Amino acid sequence: MTAWLTALIDASTIGIGISSIAVAGGVVAIAYLVYGLTGFGSSIVAIPLLTQLVPLRTATPVMLVLDLGAGMLVGMRNLQAVEASELKRLGPWLCMGLLLGVSVLVSVPEKPLELLLGVCLLAYSLWRVASRGEFREIGGGWALPLGFFGGCLTAVFGTGGPVYTIYLAGRLRDPDQRRATISALITATAVARLLLFSASGLYANPAVLPLVGFLLPCGAIGLFAGARLRSVISAARVLSLLWFVLIIAAANLIVRSVR
After folding, report:
1. Which of 3, 29, 113, 126 could bridge to 222 as Cys pair (CB 3.0-4.6 Å)?
2. Is 15 left (phi over 0), alpha (psi -120 to 50) or beta?
3. How far is CA 254 from its chain centroid?
4. What Å distances lie between residue 166 and 80, 150, 171, CA to CA?
């Protein structure tokens, strides 16, 4: 509570006004409502909207801390269902992607990165809208490109989860096994990113920790609400609406970056 009040009072440290901080809290609450309903999607919902309020190099490390907490709460309860063989197949390529992604995040100007985020988000959202959700098996060789690309996206934007989902959705038929494996993978990559981000100095940004202090309770409220609503609201219905919202957010990012 003290950290939450400090973030509100000392808005100048974060670099945005109190009204924008409140909007960020709403964004994070909605993002973790989606996470509570579906088991993934927090960063892909929050990052494109948070970058309208704060720089990408602030939004990404903030969401990392929140994702790490959520992943430990949700994903660690179903460890027995995790498919370790798929984690081992993805692991080496994912680590290479993480290393490259962190170096890009700390050295490349933000506008090109925002444009890349918009293009990737738009392509993925359109694919999900067109997809019917049926199981389509893919070969284990896809671990290399999808693991590497997912690692890059995870490091730069925190949005590699959808790429892992594409891979694991084509490898694991059982939905509980798939959900548990995705959650474990997101948690493991969050720990790796925390170490890499700390070493690269991203947490030296004075805006990050105060913003984390404010947004943690917002994320917890959303996560709790999503878990409660899981038996009432169809996750498929929520995701159908979500993809259309993200298409608009992605188009806005692309236009803003090009301008």
Report:
1. 29
2. left
3. 19
4. 22, 10, 9
Residue 8 has pLDDT above 70, yes or no: no
What is the model's pLDDT at position 135? 55
Q: Residue 166: CB partners within 8 Å, gap ≥ 6?
A: 146
**Average pLDDT score over residue span 71-91:** 76
Domain boundaries, the chain: 2-258
Mean pLDDT of the chain: 80
Q: Flag whether pLDDT at 5 surpasses 50.
A: no
Q: How many residues does the chain have?
A: 259
Q: Can you tell me the mean pLDDT for 131-156? A: 80
| Interatomic CA distance for residues 116 and 53, integer angstroms | 18
